[in-house]
Amino acid sequence: FDPRHYLGTHCYGLPKTGPHRLRFLLESVKDLRETLKKKGSTLVVRKGKPEDVVCDLITQLGSVTAVVFHEEVREIL
Questions:
Q1: Are 38 and 50 in contact (CB under 8 A)?
Q2: pLDDT at 25 over 70
Q3: Where is the Photolyase/cryptochrome alpha/beta domain (predicted)?
Q4: What is the three-state SS of the chain?
Q5: What is the domain range of residue 10?
Q6: Cβ count within 10 A of residue 22
């Protein structure tokens, strides 16, 4: 969870993620974790800037062979 997603936007100061969306995200992550657990896997969830958290996680795990991610699409005004 990137804390920057819960701050106000640069244009209007409105939150990027309101309470309903946050609840949906938390419930979705919980459901995904439970589904993976039933299949013998797990889900790692961290809070922080992805550019810091991913690097720390790779260092912590030590045997990472690939990293896949997506970048948020930003509308050009």
A1: no
A2: yes
A3: 1-77
A4: CCHHHHCECCCCCCECCCHHHHHHHHHHHHHHHHHHHHCCCCCCCCCCCHHHHHHHHHHHHCCCCCCCCCCCCCCCC
A5: 1-59
A6: 14
Two tokens, residue 45: 């969830």
What pLDDT, on the 0 to 100 scale, is given for residue 31?
A: 97
Domain count for the chain:
1
State the pLDDT at residue 10.
65
**60: which residues sit within 8 A by CB, 6+ positions away?**
none
Model confidence, pTM: 0.68
pLDDT at 37 over 90: yes
64 inside domain: no
